[in-house]
Amino acid sequence: MNFTLNMLLTILISFAITFVAAKIIIPILRRAKAGQHVRDDGPQTHLVKEGTPTMGGVIMLIGIVASSFIFAGDDLRYTVFSVITVLAFALIGFLDDGLKLFMKRSLGLRAWQKIVLQLIAAAVVACLAYYWLGLDMAFVPGSGQLWELGAGYIPFTMFILIAMVNSVNLTDGLDGLATGITLINSVTFLLIFILSVVGAAVVTPEIASDMSNMTMFTAAVAGSCIAFLCFNSHPAKVFMGDTGSFALGAALTAMGIATDMQLFLPIMGFMFVLSAISVIIQVGSFKLRGKRVFRMAPLHHHFELGGAAETQVVSGYMVATMLLCIGGLILFFVSM
What we know:
It is a multi-pass membrane protein. Pathway: Cell wall biogenesis; peptidoglycan biosynthesis. It is found in: Cell membrane; Membrane. By secondary structure, the protein is mostly helical. The chain has one domain. The protein is built from 12 helices and 2 strands; from the N terminus they run ααααββαααααααα. The chain has helices spanning about 5-30, 55-70, 75-100, 110-130, 155-170, 175-205, 205-230, 240-260, 265-270, 270-290, 300-305, 310-335; strands spanning about 135-140, 145-150. It has a two-stranded antiparallel ribbon. It is globular. The relative contact order is 0.16.
């Protein structure tokens, strides 16, 4: 069957599975009283979100995992690798959400527990990429050069993975924000993968097959995000929780790892990175100077407390992400 048709069908199937799963699971989450607790020191407009079902990342996981394999080729290594990456971090998020909601531990996993679990998951993923997939390079944006990292590839990949997962997690604070940015990045990766498949098919059919499978995985992520936005856009009927934000951060990183494009992630996903940077600046400034730089961190809450409506902030982040992804595409074309 035609490659492009397979990709489009994967998007549609993932959308359908996620949409149906949402219709089934959201009422279950409501009955289980798996509702979000809203901090009273944040934007007052968020108080109406109290009790909105969370852990909705489970909904996206069903769509992503179920549809990633449907049109995958014979060599499933890249697909299995990507799904393992997503599930490993989703499980950490699920534990964190579960402790918050059902064990009534307000902060979920303790900081050291979360760090240890993320390090273990990242080490497993990095070793799979290095030893199983045989990856050890990173593409330098705009240069056309590949850095051969050797054994240094493992700590490098671990750092990128943990940084990306936590950046997406910190960005997940407004209705549709993290989902929308992930969708835009996924569509951009789809374009890159399509070009990679077309270019590689002439020279190395093996690479074309691997990229084809990554295309189907990325299409599954995109389709799931589109469906989830139907329920997560303002006013949100469900939140993804750490289950979802960890999974999406891992999914985007898997896309980067598979194509040696890890260094494109902080460019196209800069709005995620910006959230993490704002938190680091805020915490560092308060500890060193006793003063805060922002009204509230992450940065999107700073804009809200400055008078911007939630939908305005989300729209601004979407536009900025589109421009950043266009920049990423330009860097990719320049390097071809």
